Amino acid sequence: MANLILNTSPYLQPLDYSNMSTAEKALVDALITMATEQIERYCRRTFAAADYTDEKHDGNGWRSIFVKNPPLNSLTDVDIVESDFSSDSTTTTYAATKFDTKAATGEIRFKPGSFLSSGRGVFSEGFQNIQITYNGGFASVPQGIQLACAEMVIQMFDPSEATDLIEKEKIGDYFYAKAKNAFQKMLLTKKKILDSYKIRRISQPVHW
After folding, report:
1. pTM value?
2. Domain check: are 74 and 108 in the same one?
């Protein structure tokens, strides 16, 4: 997993990372990884572009299927396991030329006149019977996501930046205790930004 931001990100400038102690730098690096994990789990996607080999999907009986990590930069091929409801099954590899694609949504759709060996132009129903090889994700992580990640790191490193994350506080011999679900609380405060990148799982066919 690639982190959403580097420790040299200008969005982390308030922390003055270059002048931190070794221990402080290690903490910031760990917080960047933790924030990345929380954001990507919330958005149901991996942001950085990467190659995906034989990504498995359940066949849906439709002409379209969606990769898990859009945007779809390039499609290599699609393996489809077809069964005649007996013990026999056949796996066929279909080249990218058989499909139309939508980069932003990650949709892959059979071109008119392109058919499976069964004679149908749909993704055969089945459990994990579709395997897609492609490159997906952002060449550059969106700025809004980078900013959200940086803000989470700063707020976790310095609770004074987000007082609503403090569960306990004492004035004399000052100390504080961070909320156990601090990351979840921060995600909610950034919901407007994150929701625009959140993957929505489609439960019915989309026609285009």
Report:
1. 0.76
2. yes
